[in-house]
Write a structure and sequence with these properties.
Elements lengths: L2 H8 L16 E5 L2 E4 L4 E4 L2 H4 L8 H13 L11 H13 L4 E7 L2 H18 L7 E5 L8 H5 L18 E3 L7 H11 L3 E6 L3 E2 L5 E2 L2 H13 L3 E5 L23 E4 L11 E6 H5 L20 H14 L2 H23 L4 E7 L2 E6 L10 H11 L2 E2 L6 E4 L7 H21 L2
The protein binds pyridoxal-5'-phosphate (PLP).
Length: about 425
């Protein structure tokens, strides 16, 4: 039996309709931007394997650090014990974060990082005897993960449909535009007395369709929320570590968050790790004699030494001039390609970029996740040696920072060929 046939017998894949699921492609190796399949084909990973891979696959530097750490200490309970990789990571990460962050709480992934942030924010008020402040503000079209709290603050969408009755109530705001900003500020003012926190994906809403919105207007919303002591939670699980052109998207705003959630690129995309960082103000609410005011949250693999080592190694690489230069180079190339797309008469609309991210919609049917055009585009791109996975009819690029100019040319040309021929050959 082939690997794909054995897979089909026992495995249930994420975000994938199981009935009539096309055979998954067995990937046997990854090196830099390339993924190699069983048959010897290679694909440029133009979406960083669900937005995680920063320095490419099979990175020698990170792999060696991981190997050394695996021989030294692979895992240890993190209640009552500590270790160098976790402490070093916290010491290094805190000063880099956009704001005055002072504590790091470790978890396993992006969903747990946002769960932790929301629980921290709600209990912050509860610990101070203000349990009426428990509402959460979130944006329409948001995506903060797949666990119940994260789903609650995410858009009510096909992802959450089966669970709507079980999700907690959230005050949803539209993302800000010059036309709705006054109304949004009024809504924050109205709900402030019962509101614990405001959670947002700064500047780019990822899984909701790579929607981009204005930094100045988001700044106004954060400032308004903070005037009412609403804790602001920046979910930078996707936008963190250079994706938007700056180290963190929150650096584009004057007002800084009280909590920040990180994952994906945190380990360079090599290991599962989540981080929730908070300011001293938040932490202080937990510095109490009363044992009931403890933050009772943790995971078996909290601060796993291997994951923290990978994160430290990824930071070593990310903070080099070479990597920072690559982020600027890719951003420039992406912008130039977006300009070129605009000049041609193609079936696309709403072409947008921020840093290393490019997105647009295929002008075909509704903008929705279930739009089947995504399957057609993925297949055609694979044939051209490029891996992309549109969100419905939203096509986007988010390459690893090690991508070369030649590889970017291949990605751009492959996309152009697909777009030029989409409706002449698709149907
Ligand atoms: C902004 C944001 N938050 C949270 C998550 C959830 O992360 P994970 O898939 O690691 O649970 C994602 C995942 O795409 C995300 O984009």
């Amino acid at each position: 039996m082939t690997l794909a046939e054995r897979d089909r017998l026992y495995i249930w894949h994420p975000f994938t309709r199981q009935k009539d699921m096309p055979a998954p492609i067995p990937i046997v190796r990854g090196k830099n931007t390339l993924l190699f399949d069983e048959a010897g084909n290679s694909y440029i990973d133009a979406i960083s394997s669900w937005w995680v891979t920063l320095h490419g696959h099979g990175n020698d530097y990170i792999a060696k650090k991981l190997y050394q750490q695996a021989l030294q200490l692979e895992q240890v309970i993190f209640a009552g014990f500590t270790h160098e990789p976790a402490v070093s990571l916290a010491e290094r990460l805190l000063p880099l974060l956009p704001g005055s962050f002072n504590r790091i709480f470790f978890s396993d992934n992006g969903s747990t990082a946002t769960e932790v942030a929301m629980k921290m924010a709600v209990q912050y008020w509860w610990n101070q005897g203000q349990s009426q402040r428990k509402k959460i503000l979130a944006f329409q079209n948001a995506y903060h993960g797949d666990t119940f709290g994260a789903m609650s603050v995410s858009d009510r969408s096909v992802f959450t449909l089966a669970f709507h009755d079980l999700l907690f109530e959230v005050v949803f705001l539209e993302t800000p535009t010059p036309g709705n900003i006054t109304g949004l500020l009024a809504k924050i003012n109205e709900h402030a007395p019962e509101t614990a926190a405001f959670i947002y994906e700064p500047l780019v809403q990822g899984a909701g369709g790579m929607n981009m919105y204005d930094a100045v207007l988001l700044d106004q919303l954060i400032q308004c929320a903070q005037q009412h002591d609403i804790l602001c939670i920046a979910d930078e699980v996707m936008t963190g570590f250079g994706r938007t052109g700056k180290l963190f998207a929150s650096s584009y705003m004057q007002a800084k968050p009280d909590l920040i959630c990180l994952s994906k690129g945190l380990t360079g995309g090599t290991m599962a790790l989540g981080v929730t960082a908070c300011t001293h103000k938040v932490y202080e609410a937990y510095l109490q004699e009363d044992a009931l005011k403890t933050f009772f949250h943790g995971h078996s693999f909290t601060a796993n030494p291997l994951a923290c080592t990978a994160a430290n190694a990824s930071l070593d690489l990310l903070l080099t001039d070479t990597c920072m230069g690559s982020i600027q180079r890719i951003s420039g190339r992406i912008q130039a390609f977006a300009f070129m797309l605009q000049q041609e008469s193609l079936p696309v609309k709403d072409i947008r970029t921020l840093g290393t991210i490019l997105a647009f919609e295929i002008d075909h049917g509704k903008k929705e996740y279930l739009n089947q055009i995504s399957t057609t585009i993925t297949q055609k791109a694979l044939t051209g040696g490029v891996y992309i996975r549109p969100l419905g009819n939203t096509v986007y690029l988010m390459p690893p920072y090690c991508i070369s100019d030649e590889e970017l040319d291949t990605v751009f040309n492959t996309m152009l060929v697909i777009l030029r021929n989409l409706f002449t050959t698709a149907s």
